[in-house]
Amino acid sequence: MWTIEGIAAKLADMTLRVANGTRPQDIPVQNGPVTAMFDWRQLQRWDIREDRLPPGSVIRFRKLTMWEQYKWRIGSGIVVMGLQALLIGALLVERRRLAGPNLNCRKHEEHLEQLVQQRTAEALEPATKPWLPTERRVFFWPT
Question: Which of 28, 62, 67, 118 has its CA 20 to 30 A from that of 78?
Fold first, then answer.
């Protein structure tokens, strides 16, 4: 069967020869190359393997596999998921690294909170005990 590609290649060759100065009458008439073409659906129907076809055969109407059809999308998806996994791992390592100082900070915060409550209780204690001098006497205010 003739193919458009084969006929175009022969025509380009003939045009190049005319452009180089060969007279068109001197160029012999040639047929385009004949290429064996097969329908993939019929090959599947009759269970004929591709390696049994003549070399240089063209197979038409082939159904692409999932990988052949979407290999760039699948590959980029795998790369994106790999990068996400690396980022998640880095974040978990960083979280573990910061867990110790955060725990110490929380313990120190609790200790300071206890000190504030203790000091507040001590400051309010004279007001609850009548035998201690009043604020006016402590600060030398006139009565």
Answer: 62
